[in-house]
């Protein structure tokens, strides 16, 4: 259990997607209450049943939507995917569940007063926690396991390709001149970094700066430039091995020596550094194809 709780877990902040999920849950609550009419709803007129069911669904949507879509925007640092674990996902969902239960209890009080039963607010939360904790654990565990297997298998496929012997060099490739220096310019007048394109390991976004990691005398080094990652992407557009693999990273695919995978996706391990570069899950197949192509290209 401890190993599962400490595993990396995906967290993607996509407001539209999260609100659609919350709307689906709210709709399910509305339909469930309207069709099965539990908790004494069957004693109400049919039109009132559906109105009240809609209110409970709306409360569920509003509270879960605010917490799912609003909280990561207000406090982005705690929700960074780089540090997101299974236990954080469970705790986050559990807190949302309790807030939804509290909101629906408040609506219950407003609609029916003491007619709904003798349970106190805290007993309702305790029952909600007891009922909800095991389904949450099961769903998170199942998703974590499925994603881990998917990306671990994808990483294994890429590693097989990387270990395959490269195609022999053509006479044209042997006679080709050494590549010229690539100039990366920041926003400042004197911000400039000149280095061979193949010396670059990755370029990472860091607030208003980018961190350029590169090989210098066979050792890893880095330098900050005041620039956006989009600007860097435009400056290296003539070098297809420098690829935007993540919203925060450009990576030199020629420097990839190994690939690993977990529930958050693929991680690229590069020559000369222990820092792994993440791959956006939407770009998994693209990165696999590019690495396979490069591994079979003449060196």
A few lines on this structure:
The chain is an alpha+beta fold and 299 residues long. The protein has helices at 2-5, 15-36, 46-74, 86-112, 121-163, 171-175, 229-235, 284-295; strands at 181-185, 192-196, 200-206, 209-216, 219-225, 242-246, 249-252, 256-262, 265-270, 277-278.
Topology of this structure?
Layout: H1 2-5, H2 15-36, H3 46-74, H4 86-112, H5 121-163, H6 171-175, E1 181-185, E2 192-196, E3 200-206, E4 209-216, E5 219-225, H7 229-235, E6 242-246, E7 249-252, E8 256-262, E9 265-270, E10 277-278, H8 284-295
Antiparallel strand pairs: 1-2, 3-4, 3-7, 4-5, 6-7, 8-9, 9-10
Total strand count, please? 10
- Low-pLDDT regions: none
Estimated helix fraction? 40-55%
Q: Measured on Cα atoms, how large is the radius of gyration?
A: 26 Å
For the largest beta-sheet, the strand count, sense and barrel status come to: 5 strands, antiparallel
* Shape descriptor: elongated
Q: Summarize the helix and strand pattern as letters.
A: HHHHHHEEEEEHEEEEEH
Description:
The chain has 2 domains: 2-157, no CATH class; 166-295, OB fold (Dihydrolipoamide Acetyltransferase, E2P) (Beta Barrel), CATH 2.40.50.1020. Helix content is 50%, strand content 19%. It contains 8 helices and 10 strands. It has helices spanning 2-5, 15-36, 46-74, 86-112, 121-163, 171-175, 229-235, 284-295; strands spanning 181-185, 192-196, 200-206, 209-216, 219-225, 242-246, 249-252, 256-262, 265-270, 277-278. A 5-stranded antiparallel beta sheet has the order 5-4-3-7-6, covered by helices on one side. The two termini are 46 Å apart.
